[in-house]
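User: Structure with FE3-S4 cluster, tokens only please.
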Amino acid sequence: MKELIQDIDLIDPAEVERNGVKVSPNANSGQNRKLYIESYGCQMNFSDSEIVASILAKEGYDTTSDIEQADLIFINTCSIREKAEQTIRHRLKHINGFKKRKPGLLVGVLGCMAERLKTNLLEEEKIVDLVAGPDAYRDLPKLINQVDDGQKAVNTFLSREETYADISPVRLNSNGVTAFVSIMRGCDNMCTFCVVPFTRGRERSRDPHSIMAETQALFDQGFREVTLLGQNVDSYKWSEKENNKARIEKSGAEGIINFAHLLEMVAKIHPDLRIRFSTSHPKDITDEVLHTMARHENICKNIHLPVQSGNSRILELMNRGYTREWYLKRINKIREILGKDCGISSDMIIGFCSETEEEHQDTLSLMDIVEFDFAYMFYYSERPGTLAAKKLTDDVPLEVKKRRLEEIIRKQRLHAEKSNKSDVGKVFRILIEGTSKKSEQYLQGRSSNNKVAVFEAQNKNKGEYVNVLITECTGGTLLGKIVA
Ligand code: SAH
Ligand code: SF4
Ligand code: F3S
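Assistant:
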């Protein structure tokens, strides 16, 4: 992923975020209708595609990785920046070619773009037969029947309760070692630049019993790492009383389970199961969460804490709910409780409405203070319907945005290199995720603080833990050898 930030022309957000398009694998009885799903956007979307595959598997659909074989093509879409939507529109044009050759082919648009554009999508993209928003996936079998009966089908109803808690996802593109577990949906934060509250609806937390059951099942199947997913994991909150459930040992006052409690419960499933989580919010991450991380070796020492900007006026315009000083204090607290080896990564938006050159310099100076191990960097893209689109002016010229982006990318590259160089000579406990992309004789995996390491296989296999002495580093990867 780090290689992707080396060329500014590659800062196609969908490209950076999607980690390569993810498509469904082959799971065929050879007799049923075949579903091909392509997913864009964030991890939540990939996780949702696994729920979609599970719902349709129950209805007897097979999945395929070959779009030519598909009877149904679903594109699970992202709206976060204009470019993300453009990528999907191009893709739909391409898919039109398949539809011409195979008239019965059903094309569905799922996810955030479906939610944002609703029935308009049917008008704009004539080849689309079905539109389903993120809370409407249980309705897919019915919607497909509707299309089979010759109608167009749309459900973009946003729910206050839906968490798909009882659905066990079919793991797509799985390496059998790492998996995502969704713990909440939606977002109540209303950052002024962000479309997510409109596409994903109100925030709701998933029943911890079902989170535990899903995680335990993953461990029993041989998975060794789960990433707990939510737009703002720190505001996870589940009340036993309201949900009429038995008391859980970990719960705090009045039977409330917060994110720290949940983390601890999941960490106790097994010491060999690693826990990651994303995304934390600087205004909400608590000391209790940091102390819980410190208490459990298997909770990975890495925090994705998106700052967005290093300037307090811009942060206020963004409605982020914290200042530069607050953010830096949280970083100090992380270092105090978890030590300087805890990885810290961020998201950054430059060129937000009215950002001056000095304010941009504040983002650069904040980067110098924190020295993030990794960052996703974007220039501001105005999204229709957001508070910023309604109330502020997108007035930083594109050339200025591009130049500022280039500056933060250059700085980030230096910091990542410095961080990687300082790892040479250290020994990391690595969870092996599979063979290296370049050679079968090499394995690759990640350290607790989320560094990718590549090393000679020496009869080890994926899913095992090994100690690796780091001997050199290239770009985004650490190279090393297994030691006792
Ligand atoms: N919930 C997470 C982020 C979700 S979106 C959080 O609050 O941090 C992922 C990232 O996309 C954001 O952190 C932000 O950096 C970026 N982003 C969101 N809206 C954007 C926009 N309109 N233009 C450019 N980048 C945007
Ligand atoms: Fe968007 Fe802000 Fe919610 Fe993140 S916290 S999803 S940036 S509104
Ligand atoms: Fe994109 Fe929706 Fe995720 S807008 S980033 S897919 S929540």
